[in-house]
From TrEMBL:
GO BP annotations, alphabetical order: aminoglycoside antibiotic catabolic process
Species this protein is from: Kurthia zopfii
Keywords in alphabetical order: Transferase
Transmembrane segment boundaries: none
Protein name: Acetyltransferase (GNAT) family protein
Gene3D superfamilies cross-referenced by the UniProt entry: 3.40.630.30
GO molecular function: aminoglycoside N-acetyltransferase activity
One Pfam family linked to the record: Acetyltransf_9
Lineage of source species: Bacteria, Bacillati, Bacillota, Bacilli, Bacillales
Amino acid sequence: MGGIGFVATYLEYRNKGVMKAIMIDALERMRHHGQTIPVLAPYSTSFYRHFGWELFQEQLQFSCELSTIGADPKLMNEVKRTSFDRVNAAVWHDIKQFHNPLANSRDSMMQRSDA
């Protein structure tokens, strides 16, 4: 079994075949490694059903208030991007100092290391 989850692209790369190429490459790599059952965690069942995927178990959904997860409504829909081609050690240190304490207190967040 090989798994694919949390697949996404930046808005400016949508409808240009980027995700299709990534998905095909992932499936080919799984096949090469003997993983004959690909499992996908889709964001949209109908979207992936269009490409031949099908559900094999029910979805789990939950909702909560923004205040519960500590989100600041003033920052919603704000995206900040940076390039890591040349990592600025001070900026990366600040990112880890901000992110890692949050990751310790929330589900499904990973600690960020220098790697």
